[in-house]
Amino acid sequence: MSYRDQIDAIASLKAAMGDGWKAINPESAARMKLQNRFNTGLDIARYTAKIMRQDMADYDADTAAYTQSLGCWHGFIGQQKLISIKKHFGKTDKRYLYLSGWMVAALRSEFGPLPDQSMHEKTAVSGLIAELYTFLKQADAWELNHLYRDLDAAREAGDKAKEDELISKIDNHETHIVPIIADIDAGFGNAEATYLLAKQMIEAGACCIQIENQVSDEKQCGHQDGKVTVPHEDFLAKINAVRYAFLELGVDDGVIVARTDSLGAGLTKQIAVTNEPGDLGDQYNSFLDGDVIESADDIANGDVVIKQNGKLVRPKRLASGLFQFKPGTGEDRVVLDCITSLQNGADLLWIETEKPHVGQIAAMVNRIREVVPNAKLVYNNSPSFNWTLNFRQQVFDAWTEAGKDVSAYDRAALMSVEYDETELAAEADARIRNFQRDASREAGIFHHLITLPTYHTAALSTDNLAKGYFGDEGMLAYAGGVQRREIREGIATVKHQDMAGSNIGDDHKEYFAGEAALKAGGKDNTMNQFG
């Protein structure tokens, strides 16, 4: 419904309600209604699920149409990211938010900073989703409020053309609400626990839930050692639990990302149940490392024995009770995990790798696509990778293979600043710049994300300010390094009162109390110094 139609509809309702509504201004009410497009988290989840499904179809038609996100650990960070995207690119198309379990653990737990091992309160996950969308909705209200104020100014100036232009902008306003890919870790318990938390996450607004195949009570960050996976049937039960949660809440096109940590996981807590050779459990068990049993004398007290490829085998078990996989089987296990997940309800894949290498990712995806042709990935452009060193070494290796002279370079020391201005460094940076385009074209990556970039940017910017402010620069560190840059670069937060909702609140007070409203934005508000 257009701006003018909204006003007319509320005017009709006001007339029908009689004198009791005489203080209600239909245009003011229409403005408030338009600034709050989504009444519930489920409204958001249903809206964004459709966006994500269309984006997946767009990618299938053209791999250049990949999507991107950054992980955000606070609603304000997510809000500023989307405001920046709209400012620089004019629209939010193909840009999402990522909610990282790592950052929830490190920054949002009441226990204090925790490692990424599912020790934080699980409700903190759904709480952050709700917070992110609260701030994105406020960004809508903030942006529209500026249009409303400009509209009032145009009317006061008698500029009908400007008035019509602004009403058109209001009618065509693009919301800051975008899809969130939300990390549920390994489900925080059994399948029922996974279902209950998934419901909370969806009710908070999540249209896409990412779940991994690690043991929930032994879960590790994908870039830590000691990862322990579960048999496929256990993982599929949790995928089903998430799907049931989506269906129960009416988000029928909700998206599930199945993450496999098998490439770096050498352990399993369980031996899979198998009923016949070649079934899913038997395939899982075929990767277990063990010793062939020739006689009963080879079996010690407490040993477990399985039949593997027609032979009796004693799986290798650690003192912890965990079983080991055969060395070098990670990639084969990844491929089986991915095919199995896609054939059993997952929509997208996540393969956690140890380095950002297009060829390595493509090798696995191509094998998966032999069975599921439209398989596609969500990929972690992880801060745990040393991007500079990895790509400089990739260039070094490529040059070596091509017979190019690399005698001027020490492969092990390529991170050194002495190489920053070299031809090798320039080519490595070009590969980093093009990594997302190349990987989406060659390795089936639909969505590129950085899990915890804003963790690092917060630390870096704070370090820069602290170094100057508590040092010789004093107040110039803030005035020159922060505020002046905000002004020059058009960062809206320079007017922090406005960004936090001061002008919105003032206008609402005027709607509610008319000339009696006590407003904060008068001539004595120091925010006026910024024009």
Keywords for this entry:
three-stranded mixed beta sheet, eight-stranded parallel beta sheet, globular, 18 helices, 531 residues, alpha/beta
Protein described:
The strands form 3 sheets. Strands 12-6-4-3-2-1-14-13 form an 8-stranded parallel beta sheet. A 3-stranded mixed beta sheet has the order 5-7-11, with no helix packed on it. The chain has helices at 3-17, 26-34, 41-61, 75-89, 101-107, 123-156, 160-171, 191-204, 232-248, 280-285, 330-342, 358-369, 387-401, 423-442, 453-469, 476-489, 496-499, 502-513; strands at residues 67-71, 95-99, 180-183, 208-212, 228-229, 255-260, 267-268, 290-292, 306-308, 311-315, 323-324, 348-351, 377-380, 445-450. Helix 4 links the parallel strand 1 and strand 2. By secondary structure, the protein is α/β, with parallel strands linked by helices.
Low-confidence segments, given as residue ranges, are 221-225
Rg computed from alpha carbons, rounded to a whole number of angstroms: 28 Å
- The global form is globular
What is the number of beta strands? Answer: 14
Instruction: Please give the order of strands in the largest beta sheet.
Output: 12-6-4-3-2-1-14-13
Mean pLDDT: 93
The largest β sheet comes out as: 8 strands, parallel
Helix content: 40-55%
The number of helical elements comes to: 18
Catalytic activity: D-threo-isocitrate = glyoxylate + succinate
Protein name: Isocitrate lyase
Binding site for Mg(2+): 183
Active site: 221
Topology:
Elements: H1 3-17, H2 26-34, H3 41-61, E1 67-71, H4 75-89, E2 95-99, H5 101-107, H6 123-156, H7 160-171, E3 180-183, H8 191-204, E4 208-212, E5 228-229, H9 232-248, E6 255-260, E7 267-268, H10 280-285, E8 290-292, E9 306-308, E10 311-315, E11 323-324, H11 330-342, E12 348-351, H12 358-369, E13 377-380, H13 387-401, H14 423-442, E14 445-450, H15 453-469, H16 476-489, H17 496-499, H18 502-513
Parallel strand pairs: 1-2, 1-14, 2-3, 3-4, 4-6, 5-7, 6-12, 13-14
Antiparallel strand pairs: 7-11, 8-10, 9-10
Helix pairs in contact: 1-2, 4-6, 6-7, 6-8, 8-9, 11-12, 12-14, 13-14, 15-16
